[in-house]
Design brief:
311 residues, 14% strand, disordered C terminus, alpha/beta, 12 helices
Length: 311
């Protein structure tokens, strides 16, 4: 039986509804909030929003309500900002930060009752930032940062949101810029190496990675447009899936489960009109999950099988 459970949540915009539906089912089956099940929660972009809400004590159902509010309050096209920025963003970050504040309040990472890792990328130098609680074993430079600021910075996806200024760090964008769209590996490194010694041991830790859905690529691209779409899609999808493969190889004794369902169509990260459809897809996925089996490691991915698929 695993002593600890770590949760990692991908980026994906409004498709964050899918992992939230899975977590709502977890809370229904177990009768506990997610932060009472997972002692370490990590997320990028929309995963950071979910991480922040769960860590602050919200239920997954409350987070689903937040996402429905995002559809009407956050995804409002800013024509003036779009024109003045030469088309570099569609939405202002301030409405998102204000909405997050109403749900998460004023709390720093150090004051959270669970460990977190929220990834962002600083615009000035492209440096990845991993916001975690302060411990003697890490750099102790991000724990005093307010949760809302970390989340808003991580959620500022380029071309969608303007960069968000995180106090003490600078203007930041989506932590998925690079390889942390699926933050599972970075989360495991933080947990196993930079928390107090013995807090997280791979053999005693269950790792659950929740994706935000994927659209299967065309089986046989047959023209230039198909090939461009295929290449772009693979460049975005492969790094995310590789992070899980790296965890399976580097931390073979950890029990690792990856849940990332296929989507019936390509759903844009800001497609607020797809919220009812996403909830329907998410509820259907959730109904297939036996969280007791997942949390006891019965459904974990075996490293040997993962290597076979990778090779």
């Amino acid at each position: 039986m695993h002593k600890r459970a770590l949760l990692s949540i991908d980026g994906g915009g409004i498709r964050g509804i899918l992992p939230l539906c899975a977590l709502a089912e977890l809370e229904r089956q177990l009768g506990r909030k997610s932060r009472e099940v997972f002692s370490f929660i990590a997320g990028t972009s929309t995963g950071a929003i979910i991480t922040g809400g769960l860590a602050a004590g919200l239920s997954a159902e409350q987070m689903l309500q937040l996402y429905q509010e995002m559809g009407t309050r956050v995804f409002r096209f800013d024509l003036l900002g779009f024109v003045c920025s030469l088309g570099s963003f569609r939405y202002r970050s301030k409405p998102l930060a204000e909405l997050l504040h109403t749900y998460m309040g004023d709390i720093s990472l150090n004051n959270l009752p669970v460990d977190v890792m929220i990834s962002a990328t600083r615009v000035s130098d492209g440096k990845p930032w991993y916001f975690v609680r302060d411990y003697p074993s890490n750099a102790s430079i991000t724990g005093k940062t307010m949760l809302v600021d970390c989340v808003a910075g991580s959620a500022a996806a380029p071309t969608y949101f303007e960069p968000y200024d995180i106090p003490g760090v600078g203007r930041c964008v989506d932590g998925g810029v690079g390889i942390a769209g699926n933050p599972i590996y970075q989360a495991c490194v933080e947990a196993f190496y930079y928390t107090p010694s013995g807090s997280y041991v791979p053999a005693d830790t269950l790792v659950v990675s929740l994706g935000t859905g994927y659209t299967p690529s065309p089986a046989a691209p047959h023209n230039l447009i198909n090939w461009v779409e295929w290449v772009v899609g693979e460049l975005l999808a492969i790094p995310a899936e590789q992070q899980t493969q790296i965890v399976l190889r580097h931390f073979q004794t950890a029990g690792t489960t990856r849940i990332n369902p296929p989507l019936p169509r390509d759903i844009g990260m800001d497609d607020a009109g797809a919220i009812p459809e996403l909830i329907k897809i998410g509820r259907a996925l959730a109904a297939t999950l036996n969280w007791n089996d997942i949390l006891t490691g019965k459904l974990s991915i075996r490293p040997q099988a993962a290597m076979a698929r990778a090779n």
